[in-house]
Each structure stands twice: as C-alpha cells, then as structure tokens.
Amino acid sequence: MHTPLAQKHGQQEAADKVVDPSAYRSIVGSLHYLTLTRPDTTHAVNLASQFMQNPNSMHLQAVKRIIRYVKRTIDHGLRIISQSSFRLYGFSYADWAGCTITKRSTTRYCIHLGANCVSWSSRKQNTVARSSAEAEYRALAATAIELTWISYILQDIGMYIKIAPNLFCDNVSALYMTTNPVMHGRTKHVETRLPLCQREGSSRTIDYSVC
C-alpha cells in the first residue's frame, strides 16, 4: 500500500452495509494519535473522522487502507535535524469544493523550521467557498495565523528569526489578494479575512510566494 488514501476513495458515496460505529470510532481515534508523528496520514484520518456518526463499509475499507499503509511504512516518521537553517516557512493548499456532500473545501498546510516539519493540519473549512481563489485565500489566512503564532513562541524562548517567514501558495489570485488593498465585488464575501493577510504582507511579517 503506497498511499494512505486512494485517489477515488468513494467515502462520500452512499453504501448499503452499515458497520459497528463503536469499533470504527475506536480505530479512528487511535489513528488520530498517530498523526502526531505521521503527517502523511493526517488528511486520510481527517477524512475518515468525518463519518463517525454513521460509518458504512466504504469508510471501514478506507480505515483499513490507512492501517495497511502504516504497517508497510512502520519505519517512517518525523526526521529532526539539529544542524539545520533557522528559517521558518510554510506551504498552504485547499481543494475547492472537495467534499461532494457539503461542497466545502479542505484547508491543508505544513510549516517547517529549517528542514524540520513542526506543524501541519488538514481541516474542512467552516463555510462554502464561492471560488478556488477564496478557498486558497482561507487556507493562506489559516497558515499565516499558525506561522505568526510559531514566530511568537520562538520569540518567547529567546529565539528571534531575522528573515521574515515565507508562505508558499499555488494560487496566483489568492496571492494578489494579499497585496491589493482595493475591495471589489468579487472579494466582498472574504472581506473579514483580507486585512489579516494584507497586514502581515505589508509589514513584511510574512513573505507570500507562489510555488
């Protein structure tokens, strides 16, 4: 098993056979602990945890795939390098309307300190994004908050970052929204999040880049 999640997993499709919810919740709950040291399983476990209330056979198959993947890659984990550059940077991504049931997008990000991955997340967004740029911008905002928080934590323990953290995103429209302070009809619905990224970008607290 080379990946923890199939490309066409079908977990959001209806299935006739319902499985034992207690056993399903127990397995997924245990897998949640594994995500503390295995970022590669975070998204698959997050998706499986969305069906705790009424799991079916498709969901159980997906969970078994994660377990088989973990067994195959039992020697994988986080690599911590002491002799690494003191540079903070992050990557953000969002799949627009990835959930076929609610049409909500999923925010994903990972943050590195040098060569070490120190923070990661995969979480469904609270509202439905009306465009891919909006979904990516919400992911940018979530990642910027996490980057800022980690910067403050490092400062509290006496470790100051001389270079502004870099935040990489693959959506050019979302990056333009961080530098353009002008509001227009297409960005009114994300107005509450615009000042956050624009403030961090204008003050050079965070450098936004396309990847």
UniProtKB/TrEMBL annotation:
InterPro entries registered for this protein in UniProt: DNA/RNA_pol_sf
Name by which UniProt lists this protein: Uncharacterized mitochondrial protein AtMg00810-like
UniProt organism field: Nicotiana tabacum (Common tobacco)
